[in-house]
Design brief:
CATH topology of the largest domain: tt1808, chain A
Distance between the termini: 71 Å
Order of helices and strands: HEEEEEEEHEHEEEEEEH
Number of helices: 4
Structural class: alpha+beta
Radius of gyration: 21 Å
Helix content: 10-25%
CATH class of the largest domain: Alpha Beta
Shape: globular
Largest sheet: 6 strands, mixed
Oligomer: single chain
CATH architecture of the largest domain: Alpha-Beta Complex
């Protein structure tokens, strides 16, 4: 594949995230995108808080990553459905991020995820300077790139090895380890926001599902109910 050799770095001054459009004016392509992003973020937040004790990380959900300056500006951005960048501030100059400007921050996301809405050709497009796969592999270069297809209940995970993306094989659990995060990525059929779908989920490296806040609360309620039932069976009032 052709390598990127010119990122328009001779054009100055470069705008920052407050000066670049944060939307291309299109609608979200399917209902499931936003719940899926929230599910991923909610369940991995405790892991990220342990990795970044000072809170220096950023999660993007359908947020533009500007990688070159174009006219119109939106043409120079890729907007992953979900991505994570470590060791960057969550706010810039006290402002929430409207985009992630690669030429100002210089740190690539560790992982980028795309949720397929049609046939997946857009997410696998290797056309130089245009295709998403090419832009991620040759310019933005996140070490891990995932393509999730809810209609097929599948996810492909690529790792950047030797400057090119290599398709990873799933482990014995059908998951894809992301070692820098200490997690695995995979598919789990379940109900979230009142809809049963094969959702994209995280597990720890021992195969334990990373729960959302609501799932953790429900687990605690079940544990408390079991304890109360055990106490009652012994003739002890759990509310005493």
């Amino acid at each position: 594949m052709t390598s990127a050799t010119n990122l328009d770095t001779d054009l100055t001054p470069f705008p920052d995230h407050t000066q670049l459009p944060d939307s291309d004016g299109t609608f979200v392509k399917n209902w499931q995108e936003h719940p899926q992003s929230i599910l991923l973020t909610d369940s991995i937040t405790p892991i990220l808080q342990q990795l970044h004790l000072e809170g220096q990380y950023c999660i993007g959900q359908d947020l533009g990553i500007y990688w070159r300056l174009t006219d119109p500006p939106e043409k120079g951005a890729a907007a992953p459905d979900w991505f994570y960048v470590g060791n960057v501030p969550p706010l810039l100059d006290g402002l929430t991020r409207r985009s992630y400007v690669f030429w100002r921050e210089h740190i690539a996301p560790l992982i980028v995820l795309e949720f397929v809405s049609s046939d997946g050709s857009e997410e696998r497009d290797t056309t130089p300077w245009k295709g998403k796969f090419w832009i991620y592999e040759q310019v933005i270069r996140p070490p891990f790139y995932g393509i999730y297809e809810v209609n097929k209940a599948s996810v492909e995970v690529y790792e950047l090895i030797g400057g090119q993306y290599q398709l990873l094989a799933a482990n014995e659990r059908g998951h894809y380890p992301i070692p820098p995060l200490g997690v695995e990525l995979g598919i789990r059929l379940g109900i979230y926001q009142n809809v049963e779908l094969p959702w994209l989920r995280w597990w720890d490296l021992q195969g334990n599902l990373l729960l959302t806040g609501d799932e953790r609360a429900a687990q605690e309620r079940q544990r408390a109910d079991r304890l109360a039932a055990q106490l009652r069976s012994l003739g002890i009032d759990p509310d005493a």
